[in-house]
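Board notes (copied after class):
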Amino acid sequence: MRDRHLLGGTMKMFIKQTGIAMVGMVVLVALGSAPGALGAPMQVTLHLDGIHPPDADRHEGTFTASAPLCASGSWLGRMGRRVFTCSDASGTFTAGFAGELEHRSGASGPWTIVEGSGKYTALRGTGTGTVDHSTGENVSPIVFNDTWTGVVDFDAIGPSAAVTRVEVVRPHARRGRWTVHVAFSARDNVEENAVTFTASATAGSYVANKNGTVTAGTSVVSFVFRRATKTHYLGVQILLVDPWGNGTTIKRRVKLR
């Protein structure tokens, strides 16, 4: 009887541990199959074949691509944006590219993946597109093919940021200049990524912009200006963007007193 209880307890423990192990394996498999699960940028190449139909405001065609993108599909471009639709129904991704470049063989320009759907919801990327061949504007329809190379990542998270300190320095003379120092912290979800920022300030007719970069740390922007009599606030807005174009905006209304 005692042996039977021991055997039963051993079997229950075995089943419990096996169940936990199976759950762990399922999680690992799911993570392993998720594109970009490790969060490391990946090199990609796309080949586009397309046409500019007569009297149309669009470019359209087909594409092939390397992993982690789908192997092939179709695309449609208007007004500098083109949507790539995967033939395996895994999703879409949208890129910015100057379509007029495709009217001239050898032309090249930047492309940027700004959004996606399905498997590519978090896809972001950047690179250079080169027009390998184009029949040119004197032929209708214009027929062309491009090669796009660059890097992509599955990262749709913008930087975290906060205003940490504001210092207002009053002028010594009545018509002197005010100085406002604004300190802020900024950090991307990938800590080693540099975050670029544009800090804009307005106070009455005064308008100024400051640009810079910060990597997992703090920065200070300073604004020096003459305040109009009826101006009592300085509005500060800081746009922070990671390498993939994901942005965050922080604002502060500074009282001038």
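Comment from the instructor: Residues 2-33 form the longest helix (32 residues). The chain has a mean pLDDT of 88.
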